[in-house]
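subagent[fold] <- orchestrator: predict structure for attached chain, return tokens only, no commentary.
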Amino acid sequence: MGFFDHLQRKGSKALKPEPPRIRKEVDHSTPPPARRTVTPTSTRSNTPVLPNRLARKRARLDVKAPASRSPKPRKRTVSEQPRLESDSDDDGSEQAFDQSNKRIRLSEDVDYDETRRLRCQSAFLEEDDAKIPMIHAADIASLDTAMKYKPAFPGSLESHMILVQYPSAFCAEKYELVVPIQSDDFNPLEDIKVTLDVITDFYCPATDATAMKDDGHGLLRRLKRARDKRAGEDYVSLISEWNDTVTRIRKNGDISRTIDKTKRLDLKLIERILTQTYSRTVSPRVGLLRQYENGTDNIYGELLPKFVSDILNKDARLRSSDIFVDLGSGVGNVVLQAALEVGCESWGCEMMDNACELAALQEKEFKARCRLWGLAIGEIHLERGDFLNNAATLRILQKADVVLVNNQAFTPELNDRLTSHFLDLKEGCKVVSLKSFVPSGHKITSRNLNSAYNVLEVVEKRYYSACVSWTDAPGSYFVSTKDSSKLKAFAKTASRQASV
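subagent[fold] -> orchestrator:
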């Protein structure tokens, strides 16, 4: 199940991209790794590699997607539980514990920000008494949730409530030991499992992580066995052991030292925090996002975290001292990801009321979650209204280093009106969009000297399957850079010729 699958209601129409109109420039970025495909017996794209879930589905159908066709609408069952983390064929299997302690993975073609401060120092003060409201897992999944949950360990526990310790001293999260009746609803035990895996991988010293992941007697292995055997008392006892272990390595400074040595946050950790935030705020109210009007600019769709990460780090090379702006920011996912992953000042502007309400809920929960995980974030500003008329948004655009515009569903009129504001961007600012703002074959002439097209240098790039919420198909996106040099050179030449 992919993130935002719940937006693909049965009978809904997927957004179909218009044919790109753009002069192409050579993109020297590293192509994605080649993947092997099985030749079928009959004939019938925010990540470079086809997701396992989709590959298995296509293998069963014995079909292969055509190389170039407009994506068709997908019919899916509605799901209210997002999955930001990457899918895995071995989820919960024995092989999952054979992996080495991962640490932070740095891409060879992405450098890191030397000035970025990752650790939230105040979150590690043992007397941390910050009064920041947080939505606990027990608030959204409990036996009180009518007809949705049942005991995970029936008949073996007097109390189904536990606390799970996170890396910081902020607080522990409350979980009720229940399981969903519908498999696509929020699952507290699965949330605990993935959270403990991520903390072990990215916060624990190597010796403690190795011990926890030991195949025979490791804590994570024993937790899995207790869960599979429905041994409730053993499970609660092992969670208590986990809490004591995390508290010990926090108090002796090991967690703080691990974060301070980290150069850049791993996407798996980023996805975990975003998923927890989303599942506790947006998922219970996801029906609000289905109330949009087809044929207008108010159509909801999202870029997924892996795609966003590539944009922030590879295309834009954003730094913590930069300013990021998302025009049409929806429920704020990309704004929050930029603030966490890069640590920069992050702005968003959205005009759909329902999306704005959910974005406000996400912002509050996100700040609490980041403190829970002990991580510092950049400033977050979520504006409500039309970004063409919002005064704060127009002011910050003039200072922005990167502007993201998911204009896949924007009308041509809105794209044209927005383009005129790019004249006010500072030199070197990058604009990332799903459709190009510059018509194909555009040339500077004496008749169009005032056009914003003249100051945008555009490169067309490709995103791959499972990068956007409205289709699994690959597509194009565009990175435009504000560069007035060609316009100035043309004006200088024209002036020289006129004086002859």
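orchestrator: received. Logging for downstream: The first strand starts at residue 149 and ends at 151. Residues 39 and 355 are 43 Å apart (CA to CA).
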